[in-house]
Design a protein that fits this description.
By secondary structure, this protein is mostly helical. It has two domains: 27 residues; 250 residues, MetI-like (MetI-like fold, Orthogonal Bundle), CATH 1.10.3720.10. Strand 1 and strand 2 form a beta hairpin. The two termini are 31 Å apart.
Length: 294
């Protein structure tokens, strides 16, 4: 190795080392520690007792875990079917807007920067079955039969929580899709307009295929975000009634900080990590490999 190469290597390592240390300290080490505790029975105070895979066996025999996982899957389905679709449509409408573009973009993105806890409190008030504005409005217009116990009915509560989170992050995907639309040469849209293509045809046959890479990014963000969902549902229902609106992260929190089962909670955390990594790998390798160059 030449002297110049050694200098370049040392210079590069000098810049990379702080980033590597931060990543290792706040990502790698916590994951390894959680992995160890997931193999133990530990209440957070006494010494951990190694139990092997006992916590993982218990997970898949737990009704709470199964319901929580299904709720996460419902949230993922809602995000993929509605959140990304609505975001794409709104992004296209904003893209075709000549006046007030910056104002409308800010309004759409505003919920994303609001704390999820604040969003949870807001929807908790909206969905209040006695004093909330939704039921009040339904009763005022003669549709009281549709006034439900939005957060108290075990069959409805999860969908109220899903709506809150899906609504909050639409703006994030709108901005991503807008970035993709802005990267399309304007001549393409002008040619479509000259050929007599309608706005809907332009959207469906030109805009969507040309921003498919951005759709892949949104899909990965949506799924991994849904797997770690916590804030809105915790504020709105605490995972109730019972555990009907619980997510995996809520179940993990309850087991760790309420029941004192830190080993079992760590095992739940590891399953969330594995699910996120597995989906990202499968999606990138088998679904998005022809559309996205990673």
């Amino acid at each position: 190795m030449t002297k110049r190469a050694r200098i370049d290597l040392s210079f590069s390592l000098g810049f990379l080392t702080p980033a590597f240390l931060l990543f290792a300290s706040f990502m790698v080490v916590p994951v390894l520690v959680s992995g160890y505790y997931s193999l133990t029975r530990w209440n957070g105070a006494s010494a951990p007792v190694f139990v092997g895979l006992q916590n993982y066996v218990r997970i898949f025999h737990s009704d709470e875990y199964v319901v929580s996982l299904l709720n996460n899957l419902r949230l993922i389905l809602a995000a993929l079917l509605f959140q990304t679709t609505v975001a794409m449509v709104i992004a296209y409408l904003l893209f075709r807007t000549d006046r007030g573009f910056d104002v409308m973009r800010t309004i759409v993105f505003l919920p994303v920067v609001v704390a999820p806890l604040a969003i949870g409190f807001m929807f908790q008030m909206f969905f209040n079955s006695d004093l909330g504005p939704i039921n009040y409005l339904l009763r005022r217009i003669g549709l009281g039969v549709f006034a439900l116990r939005w957060l108290g009915d075990k069959h409805v509560a999860i969908y109220s929580c899903i709506f809150a989170q899906t609504w909050q992050y639409v703006g994030l995907f709108v901005v991503i899709f807008l970035a993709g639309l802005k990267g399309i040469p304007v001549e393409i849209f002008e040619s479509a307009n000259i050929e007599g293509a309608s706005s809907f045809q332009t959207f469906l046959r030109i805009a969507v295929p040309l921003i498919i890479e951005y759709l892949s990014i949104c899909v990965i963000l949506a799924v991994t975000g849904c797997l770690k969902a916590f804030d809105q549902a915790w504020i709105m229902t605490k995972g109730g009634p019972g555990f009907a609106s619980s997510y995996l992260a809520i179940l993990m929190y309850k087991k760790a900080f309420i029941a004192g089962e830190f080993g079992f909670a760590s095992a739940i955390t590891m399953t969330i990590l594995v699910l996120s990594l597995a989906f990202t790998y499968i999606y990138k390798k088998y679904i998005a490999r022809d559309t996205v160059d990673y």
